[in-house]
Amino acid sequence: MAYNPNKELKKYYGIAEVAEQFNVAESLLRYWEKEFPNIKPRKSGRGVRQYTKEDIEEVRLVYNLLKVRGMKIAAAKAVLTKNRKVASDTSVIIDRLQSIRTELQAISRELGEL
Predict the structure, then answer these.
(1) Does the residue 7 lie in any domain?
(2) At what angle do helices 84-113 and 53-63 cross, to 10 degrees?
(3) Domain assignment of residue 9, yes or no
């Protein structure tokens, strides 16, 4: 069987890993679980949260609405209720634009060194 570099190696991620990925506190993720029912990580027998890729995408969506776009919780809930698809697409676009910006800044620094 050939090696597939696109295959994900992990099925579940811990709350600390997810919090670090978004640079937020673990307590904030637990709070968002209460406020946004679509964020529902699996819990092990000992209550340890296990986030799947889908859970992380829900967190990303909420993060973009609250932290990037600066919405209040009630407004974010309304957006997710009425226009989940648009909010999801916007979240993906914002992530791509931020990635492109980072790349352009790196290129600019390299050109400045020449």
Answers:
(1) no
(2) 80
(3) no
Amino acid sitting at position 27: S
pLDDT digits (tens, 9 = 90+) for 35-66: 998 899 998 888 889 999 989 988 998 998 89
Q: Is residue 22 part of a domain?
A: yes
Residue 63: burial class (beta carbons within 10 Å; 0-12, 13-18, 19+): buried
Two tokens at 110?
A: 């390299």
Q: How many CA atoms lie within 13 A of 73 on its CB side?
A: 8
Whole-number Å distance between alpha carbons of 91 and 57 = 9
Instruction: Give residue 31's pLDDT.
Output: 95
Name the 3-class secondary structure at 48: coil
Domain span at 108: 15-113
pLDDT grade, residue 87 (50/70/90)?
low
CATH of residue 46's domain is: 1.10.1660.10
Query: DSSP H helical segments within the chain, as ranges?
Result: 15-22, 26-35, 53-63, 73-82, 84-113
Q: How many domains, in total, are found in the chain?
A: 1
Q: Tell me whether residue 95 is in a domain.
A: yes
